[in-house]
Specification:
- By secondary structure, this protein is α+β, with helices and mostly antiparallel strands.
- It has a single domain, classed as Aminopeptidase (3-Layer(aba) Sandwich), CATH 3.40.630.
- The protein has a 7-stranded mixed sheet with strand order 1-2-3-4-5-7-6.
- Helix 1 runs antiparallel to helix 3.
- The two termini are about 25 Å apart.
Length: about 170
């Protein structure tokens, strides 16, 4: 079945609480493990309300089930930063993140009018590096080290321009 993106709805915070109960997901996604469900729920209710104009989070859905999310953060006139997480660990490795990111990038470079999308990946996160390269992103340098899985690691910065996305998305 195909992945779709949708706005977040009241009640989606319950899925986030379920994801947050999985310490492996938390470590992979950069979430703080073992947070109280009420804190996760409160945070997600703010996201669902959509009060931040510089941040867009959409739900990743398949067969009516919310499996994860994609983000455009730090949105400015022509650029934003991509984020993605598949919260249902049993669904990892199926290509859902790539499908979801392609859908979001089509919106970013289409109706939203962005010309550049950036992404940051922790150096040890090999799956995310493969994802970025598969989407057509190129490495543009390193960012400040960040805590990832309990260790300080290098951050690899990626960039994708509209023309490169359109070329990569064009049928052969």
């Amino acid at each position: 079945m195909a992945v779709t993106l949708r706005p977040l709805h009241p009640g989606d915070e319950q899925a986030a609480v379920r994801w947050a109960a999985d310490p492996e997901f938390c470590l992979a996604a950069g979430w703080t493990p073992h947070l109280a469900p009420c804190l996760i729920s409160k945070h997600w209710k703010r996201l669902i309300a959509g009060a931040d104009p510089d941040f867009l989070r959409l739900g990743v859905e398949e067969d009516g089930a919310l499996l994860g999310y994609v983000d455009l953060a730090n949105r400015q006139t022509h650029t934003a930063e991509l984020g993605v997480a598949i919260g249902e660990r049993t669904q990892w490795g199926r290509g859902l993140a790539a499908q979801a990111c392609n859908l979001l990038l089509a919106q970013a470079f289409g109706p939203l009018g962005l010309t550049t999308v950036r992404a940051q990946v922790h150096a040890p996160n090999t799956r995310s590096h493969r994802l970025m390269l598969g989407l057509g992103f190129t490495v543009m340098g390193s960012g400040e080290p960040e805590l990832y899985r309990g260790e300080w690691v290098e951050v690899v910065c990626y960039v994708l321009g509209r023309a490169d996305f359109e070329q990569a998305s064009a049928p052969p």
